[in-house]
Amino acid sequence: MNASNNPASRSYDLVVVGSGIVGLGAAYAAVRRGLHVCVIEQGTRPTGSSIRNFGHLCIGAQAGEARELAEAGRDTWLRLSRDAGFWLRESGTLIAARHDDELALVSAAAAGGGIEVYGADEFAALAPVDRRVIVGGARVLGDLQANPRTAAEKIVAHLSTLGVAFMWRTSATSVATDVVHTTRGAVRADQVILAVNHDIDRLLPDIAEEARVQRCVLDMMRVQMPLSAPLDAPLLTGWSLLRYGRFESLAEVEPVRERLHAARPDLAAIDLNQMYTQLPDGSVIVGDTHHRDPAPLPFQSEDAQQALIDEALELFGVQSLRVIERWQGVYASGSGEFLDREVVPGVRAIAATTGIGMTCGFGLAQRAVDAAFGAAFGAGAATPATSVVAAAPAAEANGALLGATQELTPAQRSKENTE
Ligand SMILES: Cc1cc2nc3c(=O)[nH]c(=O)nc-3n(C[C@H](O)[C@H](O)[C@H](O)COP(=O)(O)OP(=O)(O)OC[C@H]3O[C@@H](n4cnc5c(N)ncnc54)[C@H](O)[C@@H]3O)c2cc1C
After folding, report:
1. Per-residue b/e over 137-163, b at no fewer than 16 CB within 10 Å?
2. Rounded distance, CA 160 to CA 119, Å?
């Protein structure tokens, strides 16, 4: 590292492009190893998918690789919530079953453990839904809920205190081994992680095409409604069961899909995932619709928004609600659940290519850092977050280049790196 105060004129062990949850997760995993890290972000703060979602860390509904990554990221969420100081709760996930086939599906999934199934009266005591519209329900244990509106900014502030440099309002324009070219000049790095979500098609169009990455746009809203009791966990419905790996893989899912699609082709056409999370201020995030296109148009259908409202009124048994905000979310959608590829030596592109990046992003980022610097996935990051210098021997043993970061305390590095 040279003495300049301009982050672009330095060289780093790791440059991360993108300050969403995936990029921040990579920066965090690297700084915990004692590495010298810079995050490059085109905006002035995180405003991508990572702040537009439900904040649902939906671990127990995943399967396969997604489950492994979700489990790997769980402790990181808990630790960062404590150390960076943002709202998160160990809520589990509630699932309202409005039909016997939905109850049969959650019961089949519960055989694998970690899911409790309830009758209608029991479930109505757990969730403020209209007792008349449910036949039962379930709670997925171990899931978490974060406030997506505050988490990323708090993590940025925390990483800054750990010595991570941030280059805001700086776009990466191209990347090669050892270097990221940006709108503020070239930034040198031993390793680069691209965590730009769907914008991977602007940096690496061939890779994006190969992975069939396109944009999935979602209608979302935040509402005030007179619930009969607080909603103390994310709430899923039968529509949600059609899309999460753990349920989707079971034979019992087919009757649910067939019935819902036959009964409500209008909702199937907007690819509804009817779900809700309540924020600490009592307002409720309501979602969501899905439409995939490489270059989606920004126009949001009022019919789709009205459908979200109507479904919420019916499920919660309330007469009216007030929409406080509406927004369009966007995430990468691809042929698999994840993109994780070394595109040239020392440059990895990572993304969740379905809507589970909050849940799996920290695990994905940790795995990428382990692949870049060595160490088995799941075995890294054993050092305390406040002691980045103490992580140096482990990083050295793995062949990482620590450079001047070894000689600096986190506070010194933070001061050095502040733009
Ligand atoms: C409406 C909605 C609801 C969702 N709900 C959930 C949920 O409840 N649970 C869950 O697990 N997942 C959910 N997801 C998915 C999840 O939010 C995303 O998968 C995750 O946030 C992706 O994180 P990211 O860091 O890859 O992307 P982003 O948060 O989008 O960050 C990417 C960053 O890269 C920056 N960038 C792009 N190109 C460049 C460049 N060339 N140079 C510099 N910077 C660049 C962008 O400005 C952006 O800040 C939801 C998504 C949406 C949209």
Report:
1. bbbbebbbbbbbbbbbbbbbebbbebb
2. 48
So where are the chain's domains?
A: 7-55+148-211+336-417, 93-141+214-333
pTM here is 0.90
Q: How far apart are CA 362 and CA 226, in angstroms?
A: 35
> Residue whose CA is closest, atom 20 of ligand 1?
357
Q: How far is CA 114 from CA 58, 78, 137, 142, 206, in A?
A: 12, 19, 14, 8, 41
Positive or negative, the CA dihedral 284, 289, 293, 297 is negative
Percent pLDDT > 70 in the chain is 88
Q: Are strands 165-167 and 93-97 parallel, antiparallel or unpaired?
A: unpaired
Rounded CA separation 261/293 (Å): 22
Q: Which atom of ligand 1 is nearest to the CA of 288?
A: 1
In this structure, of 7-11, 27-31, 58-62, the range with the lowest mean pLDDT score is 7-11
C-alpha distances (whole Å) from 303 to each of 54, 266, 398 are: 21, 10, 55
Domain 7-55+148-211+336-417 has CATH 3.40.50.620: no
The CATH homologous superfamily to which domain 93-141+214-333 belongs is D-Amino Acid Oxidase, subunit A, domain 2 (3.30.9.10)
CA-nearest residue for atom 15, ligand 1, is 355
pLDDT tens digits, 200-237: 999 999 999 999 999 999 999 999 999 999 999 999 99
Residues with CB under 6 A from ligand 1: 17-23, 40-43, 46, 48-50, 52-56, 58, 171-172, 195-197, 199, 203, 218, 220, 288, 329-331, 351-352, 355-359, 361
Bridge-partner residues for 220, per DSSP?
327
The strand pair at 185-194 and 347-352 is best described as parallel
